[in-house]
Amino acid sequence: MASRRRMLLKVIILGDSGVGKTSIMNQFVNRKFSNQYKATIGADFLTKEVQVDDMLFTLQVQIWDTAGQERFQSLGVAFYRGADCCVLVYDVNVMKSFENLNNWREEFLIQANPSDLENFPFVVLGNKIDVDGGSSRMVSEKKAKTWCASKGNIPYFETSAKEGFNVEAAFQCIARNALKDEPEEELYLPETIDRATNRQRSTGCEC
């Protein structure tokens, strides 16, 4: 039986608008998908207990998306700080969303300013592999893996938020990466954490 620990792991999900960040989060936490699209403006987050090596942890999955709204961009520093892992998401059918991964990665490192820039854990998700049965795909798996290898062998997963494909496996990897260098004393949840954090605080669904 897994032992329970009151430990919080903060995971930030970044990527272009429309790549499926909210849908991936909802599929992981609630096992639900919506075809309705409404861009997330600002921040959105959900929490879920995850089990890693017979230990249960609270994974807080957060999305940051300004959708071009400049008034939100200055809030990024506070949002990124304290993250244990950053997930970069692109749409395999949109080359530009893949090309922008480097910008998202660099922005995160600048804003979050982690203590170890070279070894901070990232995970890359190539989403929407289900679209048109793969016939509209623009970014090959090989191309994505080559980019990940060039950035320090970032773990890479191809996912379908709609069908739930590889989402659970990806978040198991994300949780392990978030855990690997964290001092235990920094992970305990404060007693003031809102008991309602399992409720979605969303401004819309992104699919």
Structure write-up:
The protein has seven helices and six strands. It is α/β, with parallel strands linked by helices and 207 residues long. The chain is globular. The termini are far apart.
Entry summary:
With 207 residues, the chain is α/β, with parallel strands linked by helices. It has helices spanning 21-30, 70-73, 76-80, 95-99, 101-112, 141-150, 167-179; strands at 3-14, 42-52, 55-65, 85-91, 122-127, 156-158.
Task: Determine the N-to-C terminus distance.
Answer: 36 Å
How many β strands by DSSP? 6
Q: Going across the biggest sheet, name each strand in turn.
A: 2-3-1-4-5-6
Q: State the CATH topology.
A: Rossmann fold
Structural class: alpha/beta
Shape: globular
What key attributes describe this structure?
single chain, 207 residues, alpha/beta, Rossmann fold, 6-stranded mixed β-sheet, GTP-binding, transport, nucleotide-binding
Write the layout of secondary structure elements.
Layout: E1 3-14, H1 21-30, E2 42-52, E3 55-65, H2 70-73, H3 76-80, E4 85-91, H4 95-99, H5 101-112, E5 122-127, H6 141-150, E6 156-158, H7 167-179
Parallel strand pairs: 1-3, 1-4, 4-5, 5-6
Antiparallel strand pairs: 2-3
